[in-house]
Amino acid sequence: MSTVVRPALSLILLMTLITGAVYPLVVTGIAQVAFPEQANGSLVRDDQGQVRGSALIAQSFKGDAWFQSRPSAADYATVASGASNLAPSNPALATRVGEAAAEQYVEGQGPVPLALLTTSGSGLDPHLPPAAVAYQVARVAAARQISAEALQGLVEQSTLHPMVGPPVVNVLALNTALEQVAPLKK
């Protein structure tokens, strides 16, 4: 019996060491050398070097002076990320979308873009379609006391054109650039 158990336990310990320690350390080391920015979370820092967020994770911005991210079912918490899983027939979804539409609505600009009303599958999508950002330009320009044309130019500079998929705007990157161009008056 010990001729079978001893090699089995040795193999379990060896594979645990390889797959639980050696492999993760090697992959982490390679990632740190080859892709240090991505391996460390694609962090966005301000001029003082303070971390303001990650380019990969949406965050909440409060007030008219900021571009708003799309809603999050998990209140932008990475641990509880995920969709709301509310069916289209669920009255709670209709209520939430209706409230968000009333909050975001701007007179004379037509209906609020769907991306500003619905959550993404992860609840943490940092990107918005350019149309959803353009809908917010007048509000942000008025709050920041800058021209809508200047702000639209900043949005166009911040628009990413991926190889696959439609153009998108990273809201954190846009708000960071906005703060540099037109700082909030305190």
Automatic annotation (TrEMBL):
Q: Does the keyword Membrane apply?
A: yes
Question: Where is coiled-coil annotated?
Answer: none
The record's annotation in Pfam families points to: KdpC
Keywords from UniProt, A to Z, are: ATP-binding, Cell membrane, Ion transport, Membrane, Nucleotide-binding, Potassium, Potassium transport, Transmembrane, Transmembrane helix, Transport
- List localization entries: Cell membrane
Q: How does it sit in the membrane?
A: Single-pass membrane protein
| Statement: the UniProt record of this protein carries the keyword Cell membrane | yes
Q: Where does it primarily localize?
A: membrane
Highest taxon of source: Bacteria
Q: What family is reported?
A: Belongs to the KdpC family.
Q: What role does this protein play?
A: Part of the high-affinity ATP-driven potassium transport (or Kdp) system, which catalyzes the hydrolysis of ATP coupled with the electrogenic transport of potassium into the cytoplasm. This subunit acts as a catalytic chaperone that increases the ATP-binding affinity of the ATP-hydrolyzing subunit KdpB by the formation of a transient KdpB/KdpC/ATP ternary complex.
Assembly mode: The system is composed of three essential subunits: KdpA, KdpB and KdpC.
Q: Which HAMAP family match?
A: KdpC
| PANTHER family membership | POTASSIUM-TRANSPORTING ATPASE C CHAIN (PTHR30042), POTASSIUM-TRANSPORTING ATPASE KDPC SUBUNIT (PTHR30042:SF2)
- In Swiss-Prot or TrEMBL terms, this protein is called Potassium-transporting ATPase KdpC subunit
Q: Report the source organism.
A: Pseudomonas fontis
**Organism lineage:** Bacteria, Pseudomonadati, Pseudomonadota, Gammaproteobacteria, Pseudomonadales
